[in-house]
Amino acid sequence: MAWLRRIFFLAIMLVFYPVLYNLKANSQATRPYSEILCGDTVNFYCITIGDTIIKTQNGTTVTEKKALETWELLWPDETERKIVMVINRTNMRLKKGQILAVPCDMANKTFMDFSPFPSQIEAPTEKMLVFDPGLLAWAAYNPTGILVRWGPAAGGRDYCPDIARSCRTKTGTFRIIRIKGPDYRSGRYPVGCSGSRCARMPFAMFFQDNYAFHAGDLPGYNASHGCVRLFYSDAKWLNQEFVQIGTKVVIFPYPD
């Protein structure tokens, strides 16, 4: 009977291992959203982050120091800086060799001008919060179907090594069921955590079991354990000015 059990086990592995392997491969080959935008050479040009020379002067003495480029150094104008951060779907510190897409024209524009969502949809008759894991973006619509605000987001990744399974955000139509404040923390991650060792989830807005929208780090691709990460300012706005218990939530399917 032992040989029958071995054959059965091998058959199961032949069926499920390719699926598991593909999930791992997809997660390891995650493509930053900036690189997708770089294919649109009509509307964007791309830069690679590197070192720069910072000069400081004390009296007649000029000191030069090599430093990594930062958001503030590259875009001193706050409006332009926000546009670049939003379209690249990231709020994290820049890294050497990182590629960023930059709009060819940012004159007299705000981040709202770069929305990937329609400015108006058929009236949903109630407020609606939308997340599209393919666009790496969320949108808030009012009851008449007007786009009130949008922003970058990062959903659940294809595969999480620490729990050995897919972490994709649950898709479908839901309702906000719990709303938390700026100091809220996860009770699940990192695995085995407790108290202050657990990950911060500021302004968490739960829509299904342990799935929530909350503030966090956005690397430019889906990277969470299933929650939808937002810029801090966006999470705060949604939490305090838009959502309430019962607000409709729509999570679009992942792209194939």
TrEMBL record:
GO terms for cellular component: extracellular region. The active site is at 214 (proton donor/acceptor), 227 (nucleophile). InterPro entries: LD-transpeptidase, LD_TPept_cat_dom, Transpep_catalytic_dom. Residues 127-252 form the L,D-TPase catalytic domain. Pathway: Cell wall biogenesis; peptidoglycan biosynthesis. Gene3D superfamilies: L,D-transpeptidase catalytic domain-like (2.40.440.10). Pfam families: YkuD. Keywords: Cell shape, Cell wall biogenesis/degradation, Peptidoglycan synthesis, Transferase. It comes from the Bacteria. GO terms for biological process: cell wall organization; peptidoglycan-protein cross-linking; regulation of cell shape. GO terms for molecular function: peptidoglycan L,D-transpeptidase activity; transferase activity. PROSITE patterns: LD_TPASE. The keyword Translocase does not apply. This is L,D-TPase catalytic domain-containing protein. The lineage of its organism: Bacteria, Candidatus Buchananiibacteriota.
